[in-house]
Amino acid sequence: MLYAITLYYTSPKDELEKSIDAHKKWLADNIKKGSVIFAGPLDDGTGGFILAYGLDSTDMEDILAYDPFVNLGLVKTEIKAIEPGICSSHFYAEWAGNAKVL
């Protein structure tokens, strides 16, 4: 299952900057483990976005709990499960599930 995760900043920028390196390390570690597909800041500066892969929502919540931004209460999270319906042939098959490949 894929998960669209939006992080909304709830803390001042200086508080976020204190934990940015730890947050980036958490992202890098989870990319290497295969849990995070990609991540980046939102263009409007209000937070960030993570596309993640996991077995179920509880699994994803457990993984997110270790993100310093989350466990320090610096962000509010919104997690949406996504079941791909169609996808590009370039999209990794494991993430696509039963999606029709175009």
Give the secondary structure arrangement, pairings included.
Layout: E1 2-9, H1 13-33, E2 36-41, E3 47-53, H2 57-64, H3 68-71, E4 75-82, E5 86-87, H4 93-96, E6 100-101
Parallel strand pairs: 5-6
Antiparallel strand pairs: 1-3, 1-4, 2-3
List its traits:
Alpha-Beta Plaits; 4 helices; 36% helix; 32% strand; elongated
CATH superfamily: Dimeric alpha+beta barrel
User: What is the N-to-C order of secondary-structure elements (H for helix, E for strand)?
Assistant: EHEEHHEEHE
Low-pLDDT windows of residues: none
- The CATH topology is Alpha-Beta Plaits
Pfam families: YCII
Domain YCII-related: 1-77
Protein name: YCII-related protein
Family: Belongs to the YciI family.
Overview of this protein structure:
- Belongs to the YciI family.
- It comes from Pectobacterium carotovorum subsp. carotovorum (strain PC1).
- By secondary structure, the protein is α+β, with helices and mostly antiparallel strands.
- The protein is built from four helices and six strands; from the N terminus they run βαββααββαβ.
- The strands form two sheets. The chain has a four-stranded antiparallel β-sheet, covered by helices on one side. The chain has a two-stranded parallel sheet with strand order 5-6.
- Helix 4 links the parallel strand 5 and strand 6 (100-101).
- The radius of gyration is 14 Å and the shape is elongated.
- The two termini are 19 Å apart.
- The mean pLDDT is 94.
